[in-house]
């Protein structure tokens, strides 16, 4: 039996899985802020799984925002952590071996495994509050030298685009993330859903912001195909709730780029990009897989 925990900005979710990745138990609690609170919330989620364990725990994996190196979490702004060794803290509290990885990397592992684990070059593109990608090459997460591989939300696609991520203009995250959409809209208390509702009602500015989502998401897909040679790119996160609007909107850009570049045409972007259609807790399951690989 293995435990996986997905620590996010809105929730902490834990799962107990068997070797076939079937979910045997789950729990969900509100998110916590700061090193001590995140540690406590994670430990509580793990302990909630223990009564359901028929044998012994083989491993514990934790997916968490931020750059992760050697179990140390850095730059996880949405959970109030600047630099903290979460792996050591949870291991000490539980007395068990623990592996900590980036939450989008965990979602990438989960999506890859639950999708059949056949792709040798797989990317999971998260279009949520922020934007980032998790990369799985030959069944292993690729973290890069500093643990920030896949942080493509920081890539600028237009020097004159909206300023959002740490003052950088025209970033992919500024275009195609929930926070970027809200920042462009500029109305206190608004959500991305409010903006999309306004676009559906014909508001010109909302329509332009929604079009930017299509551009940013399509540009992220193109970047992943060109840089890691991805043969499968799975899109997840809240903005994928746009469904066919997102798919058709990205296709417009894919077709335009392919019409002028034979190289881009050869990537078949419309064929390798898919919107996730799986309601299982893929990030928590992926964290359990990360714990297994670590152990």
Supply database-style keywords.
five-stranded mixed β-sheet; 11 helices; alpha/beta; 15 strands; globular
Structural write-up:
- The protein has 295 residues and is α/β, with parallel strands linked by helices.
- The protein has 11 helices and 15 strands.
- It has helices at residues 35-49, 86-94, 103-114, 172-175, 178-185, 192-200, 204-228, 244-260, 262-267, 269-272, 282-294, and strands at residues 2-7, 11-17, 23-30, 59-64, 67-69, 72-76, 81-85, 98-102, 121-127, 131-137, 140-141, 163-165, 168-169, 232-236, 273-275.
- The strands form 4 sheets. A 5-stranded mixed β-sheet has the order 3-2-1-4-8.
- A hairpin with a 2-residue loop joins strand 10 and strand 11.
- The longest helix has 25 residues, at 204-228.
- The radius of gyration is 19 Å and the shape is globular.
What topology, given as strand order, has the largest sheet? 3-2-1-4-8
Continuous helix count: 11
**Cα-based radius of gyration, to the nearest Å:** 19 Å
Basic shape: globular
Which stretches of 5+ consecutive residues score pLDDT under 50?
none
The biggest beta sheet is recorded as: 5 strands, mixed
Structural class: alpha/beta
Overall average pLDDT: 94
Strand fraction equals 25-35%
Helix proportion range = 40-55%
What is the strand tally? 15
Question: What is the element string, with H for helices and E for strands?
Answer: EEEHEEEEHEHEEEEEHHHHEHHHEH
Distance between the termini: 13 Å
């Amino acid at each position: 039996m293995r435990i996986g925990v997905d620590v996010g900005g809105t929730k902490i979710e834990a799962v107990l899985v068997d070797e076939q990745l079937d979910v045997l138990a789950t729990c969900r609690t509100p998110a916590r802020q700061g090193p001590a609170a995140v540690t406590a919330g994670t430990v509580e989620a793990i302990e909630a799984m223990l009564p359901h364990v028929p044998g012994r725990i083989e491993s514990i994996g934790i997916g968490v925002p931020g750059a992760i190196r050697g179990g140390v979490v850095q730059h996880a702004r949405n959970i109030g952590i600047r630099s903290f060794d979460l792996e050591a803290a949870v291991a000490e509290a539980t007395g068990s071996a623990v592996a900590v990885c980036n939450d989008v990397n965990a979602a990438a592992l989960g999506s890859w495994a639950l999708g059949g684990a056949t792709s040798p070059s797989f990317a999971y593109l998260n279009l949520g509050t922020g934007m980032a990608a998790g990369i799985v090459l030959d069944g292993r997460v690729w973290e890069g030298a500093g643990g920030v591989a896949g942080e493509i939300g920081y890539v600028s696609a237009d020097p004159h685009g909206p300023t959002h991520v740490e003052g950088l203009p025209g970033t992919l995250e500024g275009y195609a993330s929930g926070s970027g959409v809200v920042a462009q809209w500029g109305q206190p208390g608004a959500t991305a859903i409010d903006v999309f509702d306004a676009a559906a009602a014909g508001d010109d500015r909302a329509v332009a912001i929604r079009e930017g989502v299509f551009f940013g998401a399509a540009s992220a897909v193109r970047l992943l195909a060109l840089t890691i040679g991805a043969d499968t790119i799975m899109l997840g996160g809240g903005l994928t709730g746009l469904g066919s609007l997102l798919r058709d909107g990205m296709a417009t850009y894919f077709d335009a780029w392919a019409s002028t570049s034979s190289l881009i045409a050869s990537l078949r972007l419309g064929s390798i990009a898919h919107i996730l259609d799986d309601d299982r807790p893929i990030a928590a399951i992926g964290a359990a897989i990360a714990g297994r690989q670590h152990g």
